[in-house]
Amino acid sequence: MQQQNWDISAATSLYNIDRWGAGYFGINEKGNVQVFPTQDTQTPIDIMELVAEAKEQGLTFPMVLRFQDLLRHRVETINRAFASAIEEFKYQGVYRGVFPIKVNQLQEVVEEIMAAGEEFHFGIEAGSKPELLAALAIHRDPESLIICNGYKDATFIQNALIGTKLGKRVIMVVEKLEELQQILAVSREMGVEPWIGMRVRLLAKGAGKWALSGGENAKFGLSTAELLAASETLREAGLGHCLKLVHFHVGSQVPDIGTVKRAVREAARFYAKLCKLGHAIGYLDCGGGLGVDYDGSRTAFDSSTNYSLQEYARDLVWNIMEVCDDEKVAHPTIVTESGRAIVAHHSVLIVEAFGSIEKERETVVTEPKANDPKLVASIFELKRGITRQNRMETLHDAQEVKEKAQAMFDLGLLELDAKARIETVFWQIARAVVEHSQGMKFLPDEVKELEIALADQYVCNFSVFQSMLDHWALGQLFPIMPVHHLDVAPDRQATLVDITCDSDGKVSKFVDLQDVKDTLPLHRLQPGQPYYIGCFLMGAYQDIMGDFHNLFGRVNEAHVFLDEDEECGWYIEETLEGSTIASVLSMTQWDEAEMNRLMKAQVDAAIKGDRLKPAEAIRLLNSYEKALKGYTYLHFNGK
Predict the structure, then answer these.
(1) What's the pLDDT band for 365 if we cut at 50, 70, 90?
(2) How far apart are CA 88 and CA 135, in angstroms?
(3) Radius of gyration of the chain (CA)
(4) Read out DSSP for 492-559?
């Protein structure tokens, strides 16, 4: 892209920030990314100013920035979307959403969501015993729900019933038929009637990466025959009135609204038929699936959605109402378990690029010499003669020279200097081929592959396995872009590599409106100047699912709130330091005190053997002990 044609609008278009940003992110005139936590453009937060403040408070990179007001805004937006749809269609029920704690179990995140949802009677969903115990502790509103999903044992059921005894609306969703008998047995022992839900296994299933979590071969849920058996079991026990909820889940990150419509109509039919069997069911739980438009394309692609939040709410309300009216049963309270759509936007990972690996870097002299071997002279001649017309022929000839050079080197017939110069000139020719191909209507696959091969690798101080596990494991795409210098046109194409020792520790697929991009436009790194890259929409699952590959632990965090009384309009409410070396070692049974003792024994032996002076030995031991208490990631510029 030409420098003279570059401006902030060009940067906005290049990185699609106005599309995937959903009104929460933009670029200011300084060329810095800014955040609008409530979508109000009058209250921007400049990420670079925020990073500077976090550094002043002692945080180093990588760091996660959490925008708590954005969390609150997401909760309010979802609840108001359903309220609007209910009013529009004159629906006779209400909406009672729940937050699935598995999407982000961090206490401050859950607390903010619960506080924001209080006026809407917004509840919480738990799928394990630890999650249930956390939910019971934080839940306060007797009008909101605690939904218990997942397989359950006696202890799980007991704790759910403790919540019931405390006056909470705790609904245990039966995932398999055998669970029902256990719920009834534990309920009798505790002398409390349970609130029970039934998860139905629909024929309708989702699309995208999580499609297999729905459909008739799904891991969870009851078949039609099992549903009837469960209904009969409850009636025989005199507890038919305890069936309060019908649940379904069509998959996470559902990209196509058609999938949602089919699933909700099928589930509403199950709800209506069970009502006609005499059960006083009050709730229809539509599970999760509300997607996030990670790439901004607004399509049915895996990393996008072809629908808006308002369309999603309207379709759920309308289709449930239509089926219930057709069956002449009361409209249920609508429940959704939308987690990703609530938390994804609030979290931004900032990483520092501290080095680059470039194919074309001038590490050897590339001028021809009089006594050059024939192959070296040949490739220089090819470089001199390349034109737009002969670019592909020149490329093929250069590839042949490079292959011959490798063969001669393998036989010991070519020296290092000659091999290095041939490879350097080859990549210069490759760059010229790509440049000569720009603007052409048809781009050969060879040229596309060259563009990827020529891309730099930016070495970034983070771990993909810890901070972007879904990208590595599932190919999930996240919006990634530089957070500063956006008033200047990027001049490099790059992929990102992390500091783990694994070759899979990389990001080489990026969001794009048309397709998935293999490279990301970035600026050339300048010696001594930090370069920061933001990974956006990171709030769902990545915080809790991180892997401790190479024992890189949790990263530093800054929690940010808007405040009109502050001169800048915001403040950092809290900083949380990431994992220390000692803390991650302790997860693999290494004891800090024992490690210090073992090192001290070795230092003492070195003193006795006259290999170390006592003063130097003490310094070394102190350095080791201090390192154990340090951050697991790299430190630059003495910070």
Answers:
(1) low
(2) 33
(3) 30
(4) EEEEEE-SSS-TT-EE--B--SSS-BSSEEEPPP-TT--EEEEE-S--SSHHHH---GGG--PPEEEE
Q: Are 93 and 332 within 8 A, CB to CB?
A: yes
Extended strands (E) in 286-391: 333-335, 347-357
* 224-236 and 257-276 helices, crossing angle to 10°: 30
Token representation of residue 57:
């408070």
The H or E element spanning position 426 is helix 416-437
Q: Indicate the SS3 state at residue 633.
A: coil
Residue 211 has pLDDT above 60, yes or no: no
| Contact of 295 with 301, CB cutoff 8 Å | yes
- 95 three-state secondary structure: strand
Residue written as token pair 């921007």: 44
> Which two three-digit tokens encode residue 136?
């019971």
Instruction: Measure CA of the first residue to CA of the last residue in the chain; give whole Å.
Output: 35
How many C-beta neighbours within 10 Å does residue 361 have?
Answer: 11
Q: CB count, 10 Å around CB of 76?
A: 16
User: HSE (CB half, 13 Å, CA atoms) of 298?
Assistant: 9
Q: Is the pLDDT of residue 369 over 90?
A: no
**Rounded Cα–Cα distance for residues 175 and 191 (Å):** 23
Strand partners, 465: none
Residues in contact with 360: Cβ distance below 8 Å, sequence separation at least 6, in sequence order: 424, 427, 428, 431, 454
Residues contacting residue 281 through CB under 8 Å, at least 6 positions apart: 243, 244, 245, 246, 271, 274, 275, 332
Distance CA 126, CA 412 (A): 65
Tokens matching residue 217 = 């071969």
Residue 437 and residue 443 in contact, taking contact as beta carbons nearer than 8 Å: yes
Q: Is the peptide bond before 130 cis (omega within 30 degrees of 0)?
A: no
pLDDT of 367 reads: 81
Can you tell me which residue has the tokens 């999580």?
210
Q: In this structure, are residues 505 and 464 in contact, taking their beta carbons and an 8 Å threshold?
A: yes
| Mean pLDDT of the chain, nearest integer | 93
List phi, psi (to 5°) of 321: -60, -45
CA distance 456 to 471: 20
DSSP state of 241: G
Residue type, 16: N
Burial readout 460-497 (b: 16 or more C-beta within 10 A, e: otherwise): bbbbbbbbbbbbbeeebbbbbbbbbbbbebbebbbbbb
Indicate if the pLDDT at residue 413 is higher than 70: yes
Burial class (CB in 10 A: 0-12, 13-18, 19+), 153: exposed
Residue 637 CB burial class (10 angstroms; 0-12, 13-18, ≥19): exposed
- Count of beta carbons in the 10 Å neighbourhood of residue 188: 13
The single residue listed with the structure tokens 């008739």 is: 216
d(CA 579, CA 590): 15
